[in-house]
Amino acid sequence: MKNLTPKAAKEYILNEYGYIKHDIKKLVKASRTTAKKYNCTPLEIFFFMIENKNINNMHLSEYGYNNRLGREIRETFKNNY
Asked: Exposure check for the chain: N or C terminus, fewer CB within 10 A?
C-alpha cells in the first residue's frame, strides 16, 4: 500500500484479519489528522495503530511498551476518531 485511502485500508484489513470492526472512513480521517500534528505520513499512523509498528525517526516504544509519545499519539488518534 502506497497511499492511505479508504479502499486500500479496507482491502488491507480484510486481507490481514478477515473482518472489519471499525468505520474505515473515520479510521483514515483520524490517521490523516493525527499525521499532520506529528509530522509523519498517514500510512505510518495507520500501521502504528493497527499493527503497533514504529514510525520512522520516532521512538514510540521501550521494551515492548509504548512510551509517553506513543501513548500521546494513540490518545490523539482516539480523540480524532
From this structure: N
Residue 79: is its pLDDT beyond 80?
yes
**For residue 2, what is its C-alpha cell?**
502506497
List phi, psi (to 5°) of 65.
-115, 145
**Could you identify the residue written with the cell 484479519?**
17
DSSP run (H or E) holding 26: helix 24-38
As to burial, measured by CB atoms within 10 angstroms (0-12 exposed, 13-18 middle, 19+ buried), residue 72 is middle
21-64 pLDDT tens trace: 889 999 999 999 999 999 999 999 999 899 888 888 777 777 77
Identify whether the C-beta of residue 48 lies closer than 8 Å to the C-beta of residue 54.
yes
